[in-house]
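Continuing the batch. This is chain 6 of the set; chains 1 through 5 are on the previous pages. Same settings as before, nothing changed between runs. Recording input and output for traceability.
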Amino acid sequence: MLFVSSNIVVGIADMKMVRNEGVLVTYALGSCIGICLYDPGIKLASMIHIMLPVKLENSNDNVFKFAETGIPETLRKMEVFGAVRGRIVGKIAGGAKMFDIPGNGSLGNIGLRNIECVKQTLRTHGIRILKEDVGANYARTLYFDCKTGNGVIKSYGRPEIIL
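Output for chain 6:
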């Protein structure tokens, strides 16, 4: 996989899509989750960087900020570009517990809530997760190569993980 300055950067609460070639990358996946969706039949890849599991009521926020809205919107856009739902597969990374917050509040557990929501939303839409690197307590950078369908996760002080 090439790591070059021409990588396509996916920001927080963002989605990007490429066809045939190109490397998608998203940085600083703490409790957020990077979701790679890929149709190998036409080499169409997308990456979403979600922050939260569900959209707040009456919120006008960006759909890609949330798992429950960002995933279906990305799938819809992929199908517009010729993807077939039955061929699309997923790879996910992130969902870490970055802070140890005392008490029973859900704020400290947002990574786990993101993981659960992403998996459920993908399952609801018939998307199989091929590989994942989620949870733990460290940040990740996720790369996804559209040409090969392979991903790489880099984390400070840890070996690379092939996704």
